[in-house]
Amino acid sequence: MTKKKPAAAPLFEARDLTRVYHLGEVEVHALRGVNLELFAGEFVVLLGPSGSGKSTLLNILGGLDTPTSGSVTYRGRNLAGLSELDLTMFRREHVGFVFQFYNLIPSLTARENVALVTEISKDPMTPLEALALVDLEDRADHFPSQMSGGEQQRVAIARGIARRPAVLFCDEPTGALDYQTGKLVLEAIDRANRELSTTTVVITHNASIALMADRVLGLSDGRIAREERNRHKKAPAEITW
Question: Which fold would CATH assign to domain 41-63+87-238?
Protein backbone atom coordinates (compact mmCIF):
# COMPACT_ATOMS: atom_id res chain seq x y z
CA MET A 1 0.00 0.00 0.00
CA THR A 2 1.43 3.35 -1.09
CA LYS A 3 1.54 5.99 1.59
CA LYS A 4 0.06 9.36 0.74
CA LYS A 5 2.44 12.26 0.98
CA PRO A 6 1.53 14.63 3.82
CA ALA A 7 -0.22 17.79 2.67
CA ALA A 8 2.09 20.78 2.36
CA ALA A 9 1.86 23.29 5.18
CA PRO A 10 0.62 26.73 4.15
CA LEU A 11 3.22 29.43 3.56
CA PHE A 12 0.73 32.01 4.90
CA GLU A 13 -2.30 31.36 7.05
CA ALA A 14 -4.79 34.04 8.11
CA ARG A 15 -7.51 33.39 10.66
CA ASP A 16 -10.43 35.71 11.52
CA LEU A 17 -8.47 38.69 10.21
CA THR A 18 -10.05 42.11 10.75
CA ARG A 19 -8.83 45.64 10.10
CA VAL A 20 -10.68 48.70 11.33
CA TYR A 21 -9.56 52.24 10.53
CA HIS A 22 -10.77 55.23 12.55
CA LEU A 23 -11.44 58.39 10.55
CA GLY A 24 -12.51 60.83 13.22
CA GLU A 25 -15.63 59.32 14.76
CA VAL A 26 -16.18 57.03 11.78
CA GLU A 27 -15.09 53.39 11.82
CA VAL A 28 -14.13 51.88 8.46
CA HIS A 29 -14.14 48.08 8.46
CA ALA A 30 -11.66 47.18 5.71
CA LEU A 31 -11.50 43.47 6.59
CA ARG A 32 -14.23 41.48 8.33
CA GLY A 33 -13.02 38.07 9.46
CA VAL A 34 -10.86 36.89 6.56
CA ASN A 35 -9.59 33.31 6.52
CA LEU A 36 -7.13 32.13 3.87
CA GLU A 37 -4.13 29.97 3.15
CA LEU A 38 -1.38 30.58 0.59
CA PHE A 39 0.94 27.78 -0.51
CA ALA A 40 4.49 27.79 -1.83
CA GLY A 41 4.83 28.33 -5.56
CA GLU A 42 1.18 29.04 -6.36
CA PHE A 43 -0.18 31.98 -8.35
CA VAL A 44 -3.18 33.56 -6.61
CA VAL A 45 -5.36 36.44 -7.76
CA LEU A 46 -7.30 38.52 -5.24
CA LEU A 47 -10.20 39.84 -7.27
CA GLY A 48 -12.67 42.51 -6.26
CA PRO A 49 -13.85 46.09 -6.75
CA SER A 50 -12.28 49.15 -5.15
CA GLY A 51 -12.96 49.21 -1.43
CA SER A 52 -13.33 45.44 -1.11
CA GLY A 53 -10.27 45.09 1.14
CA LYS A 54 -7.75 43.73 -1.38
CA SER A 55 -4.94 46.19 -0.70
CA THR A 56 -5.48 46.06 3.06
CA LEU A 57 -5.17 42.27 2.99
CA LEU A 58 -2.03 42.42 0.85
CA ASN A 59 -0.45 45.03 3.14
CA ILE A 60 -1.09 42.87 6.22
CA LEU A 61 0.29 39.73 4.56
CA GLY A 62 3.33 41.70 3.43
CA GLY A 63 4.04 43.18 6.87
CA LEU A 64 3.22 46.76 5.85
CA ASP A 65 0.19 46.91 8.15
CA THR A 66 -1.07 45.05 11.21
CA PRO A 67 -4.53 43.58 11.81
CA THR A 68 -6.97 44.92 14.37
CA SER A 69 -7.72 41.35 15.42
CA GLY A 70 -7.10 37.82 14.25
CA SER A 71 -3.79 36.24 13.27
CA VAL A 72 -1.61 35.94 10.21
CA THR A 73 1.29 33.50 10.21
CA TYR A 74 4.18 33.06 7.80
CA ARG A 75 5.76 29.60 7.99
CA GLY A 76 4.08 29.22 11.37
CA ARG A 77 5.35 32.55 12.77
CA ASN A 78 2.70 35.04 13.86
CA LEU A 79 3.38 38.34 12.09
CA ALA A 80 0.93 40.23 14.30
CA GLY A 81 3.26 39.84 17.28
CA LEU A 82 6.42 41.13 15.58
CA SER A 83 8.15 44.42 16.34
CA GLU A 84 8.68 47.02 13.63
CA LEU A 85 12.31 45.88 13.31
CA ASP A 86 11.27 42.25 12.93
CA LEU A 87 8.65 43.20 10.33
CA THR A 88 11.32 45.14 8.43
CA MET A 89 13.58 42.08 8.43
CA PHE A 90 10.65 39.88 7.35
CA ARG A 91 9.99 42.15 4.35
CA ARG A 92 13.68 42.39 3.50
CA GLU A 93 14.34 38.65 3.61
CA HIS A 94 11.10 37.10 2.36
CA VAL A 95 8.87 39.52 0.43
CA GLY A 96 8.96 41.37 -2.89
CA PHE A 97 6.47 44.11 -3.80
CA VAL A 98 5.22 45.51 -7.10
CA PHE A 99 2.81 48.43 -6.98
CA GLN A 100 0.63 50.16 -9.58
CA PHE A 101 3.00 53.11 -9.65
CA TYR A 102 6.57 52.07 -10.20
CA ASN A 103 8.34 53.97 -7.38
CA LEU A 104 11.63 54.04 -9.27
CA ILE A 105 14.26 56.64 -8.35
CA PRO A 106 14.47 58.97 -11.39
CA SER A 107 18.18 59.76 -10.96
CA LEU A 108 19.19 56.08 -11.02
CA THR A 109 19.43 53.74 -14.01
CA ALA A 110 17.44 50.52 -14.21
CA ARG A 111 20.50 48.59 -13.02
CA GLU A 112 21.00 50.97 -10.08
CA ASN A 113 17.32 50.86 -9.08
CA VAL A 114 17.53 47.06 -8.85
CA ALA A 115 20.89 47.22 -7.06
CA LEU A 116 19.26 49.16 -4.23
CA VAL A 117 17.72 45.90 -2.98
CA THR A 118 20.42 43.44 -4.03
CA GLU A 119 23.03 45.28 -1.96
CA ILE A 120 21.12 44.56 1.26
CA SER A 121 20.20 40.94 0.50
CA LYS A 122 21.79 37.66 1.52
CA ASP A 123 21.69 35.71 -1.74
CA PRO A 124 20.41 38.00 -4.49
CA MET A 125 20.58 37.78 -8.24
CA THR A 126 22.80 40.32 -9.90
CA PRO A 127 20.83 43.32 -11.21
CA LEU A 128 21.48 42.14 -14.77
CA GLU A 129 20.13 38.66 -13.99
CA ALA A 130 16.95 40.17 -12.60
CA LEU A 131 16.55 42.51 -15.57
CA ALA A 132 17.14 39.59 -17.96
CA LEU A 133 14.26 37.72 -16.34
CA VAL A 134 11.93 40.53 -17.46
CA ASP A 135 13.67 40.92 -20.85
CA LEU A 136 15.23 44.30 -20.05
CA GLU A 137 18.95 43.60 -19.79
CA ASP A 138 19.51 45.82 -22.85
CA ARG A 139 17.93 48.75 -20.96
CA ALA A 140 20.06 48.35 -17.83
CA ASP A 141 21.81 51.70 -18.21
CA HIS A 142 18.71 53.72 -19.10
CA PHE A 143 17.01 56.08 -16.69
CA PRO A 144 13.27 55.83 -15.96
CA SER A 145 12.59 58.92 -18.09
CA GLN A 146 14.09 57.06 -21.07
CA MET A 147 11.72 54.10 -20.68
CA SER A 148 8.04 53.50 -21.35
CA GLY A 149 5.56 52.87 -18.54
CA GLY A 150 5.61 49.14 -19.22
CA GLU A 151 9.40 49.05 -19.13
CA GLN A 152 9.43 50.95 -15.86
CA GLN A 153 6.97 48.47 -14.38
CA ARG A 154 9.15 45.58 -15.52
CA VAL A 155 12.13 47.23 -13.80
CA ALA A 156 9.96 47.38 -10.67
CA ILE A 157 9.27 43.65 -11.06
CA ALA A 158 12.99 42.97 -11.49
CA ARG A 159 13.61 44.93 -8.30
CA GLY A 160 10.88 42.93 -6.55
CA ILE A 161 12.29 39.53 -7.50
CA ALA A 162 16.03 40.29 -7.38
CA ARG A 163 16.30 39.21 -3.74
CA ARG A 164 14.76 35.83 -4.63
CA PRO A 165 11.81 36.41 -2.28
CA ALA A 166 9.58 33.56 -1.20
CA VAL A 167 6.53 35.63 -2.13
CA LEU A 168 5.83 38.45 -4.58
CA PHE A 169 2.87 40.76 -3.87
CA CYS A 170 1.59 42.77 -6.85
CA ASP A 171 -0.97 45.53 -6.28
CA GLU A 172 -2.78 46.39 -9.54
CA PRO A 173 0.46 45.99 -11.54
CA THR A 174 -1.25 46.74 -14.89
CA GLY A 175 -3.66 49.37 -13.61
CA ALA A 176 -1.82 52.30 -15.21
CA LEU A 177 -0.94 50.51 -18.47
CA ASP A 178 -2.59 49.93 -21.81
CA TYR A 179 -3.58 46.46 -22.99
CA GLN A 180 -0.46 45.47 -24.94
CA THR A 181 1.93 46.87 -22.34
CA GLY A 182 -0.05 45.18 -19.58
CA LYS A 183 0.44 41.82 -21.29
CA LEU A 184 4.22 42.25 -21.21
CA VAL A 185 4.08 43.02 -17.50
CA LEU A 186 1.89 39.98 -16.80
CA GLU A 187 4.29 37.80 -18.79
CA ALA A 188 7.15 39.03 -16.59
CA ILE A 189 5.21 38.24 -13.40
CA ASP A 190 4.19 34.83 -14.73
CA ARG A 191 7.76 34.00 -15.70
CA ALA A 192 9.03 34.89 -12.22
CA ASN A 193 6.40 32.62 -10.72
CA ARG A 194 7.29 29.69 -12.99
CA GLU A 195 11.07 29.98 -13.10
CA LEU A 196 11.75 31.03 -9.51
CA SER A 197 8.83 29.13 -7.90
CA THR A 198 7.93 32.38 -6.18
CA THR A 199 4.52 32.40 -4.54
CA THR A 200 2.75 35.18 -6.41
CA VAL A 201 -0.28 37.18 -5.29
CA VAL A 202 -1.80 39.70 -7.70
CA ILE A 203 -4.62 41.98 -6.61
CA THR A 204 -6.83 43.40 -9.33
CA HIS A 205 -10.36 44.44 -10.23
CA ASN A 206 -9.84 42.98 -13.72
CA ALA A 207 -11.54 39.58 -13.97
CA SER A 208 -9.60 38.64 -17.11
CA ILE A 209 -6.30 38.55 -15.23
CA ALA A 210 -7.78 35.85 -12.98
CA LEU A 211 -7.58 33.44 -15.93
CA MET A 212 -3.81 33.04 -15.43
CA ALA A 213 -4.06 32.14 -11.72
CA ASP A 214 -3.95 28.77 -10.00
CA ARG A 215 -6.56 30.05 -7.58
CA VAL A 216 -8.88 33.06 -7.43
CA LEU A 217 -10.16 34.61 -4.21
CA GLY A 218 -13.06 36.99 -4.70
CA LEU A 219 -13.28 39.77 -2.11
CA SER A 220 -16.38 41.79 -1.31
CA ASP A 221 -17.02 44.16 1.60
CA GLY A 222 -13.92 43.02 3.47
CA ARG A 223 -14.71 39.31 3.19
CA ILE A 224 -13.67 36.46 0.91
CA ALA A 225 -16.93 35.88 -0.89
CA ARG A 226 -15.77 33.03 -3.14
CA GLU A 227 -12.79 30.83 -3.95
CA GLU A 228 -12.17 29.10 -7.27
CA ARG A 229 -9.45 26.78 -8.47
CA ASN A 230 -8.48 27.38 -12.07
CA ARG A 231 -8.09 24.03 -13.83
CA HIS A 232 -7.47 25.60 -17.23
CA LYS A 233 -4.90 28.31 -16.67
CA LYS A 234 -4.20 30.63 -19.58
CA ALA A 235 -0.89 32.16 -20.52
CA PRO A 236 -0.77 35.96 -20.33
CA ALA A 237 -0.58 36.19 -24.13
CA GLU A 238 -4.02 34.49 -24.36
CA ILE A 239 -5.76 36.94 -22.06
CA THR A 240 -7.91 39.73 -23.45
CA TRP A 241 -9.55 42.48 -21.47
Answer: Rossmann fold (3.40.50)
pTM metric for this prediction? 0.89
- Positive or negative CA dihedral for 182, 183, 186, 192? negative
Burial of 165 (0-12, 13-18, 19+ CB in 10 A): buried
| DSSP string computed for 53-105 | SHHHHHHHHTTSS--SEEEEEETTEEGGG--HHHHHHHHHHHEEEE-SS----
- Name the 3-class secondary structure at 200: strand
| DSSP category for residue 10 | P
CA pseudo-torsion sign 163, 169, 170, 171: negative
User: Which pLDDT tens digit goes with each residue over 182-209?
Assistant: 888 888 899 889 998 999 999 998 888 8
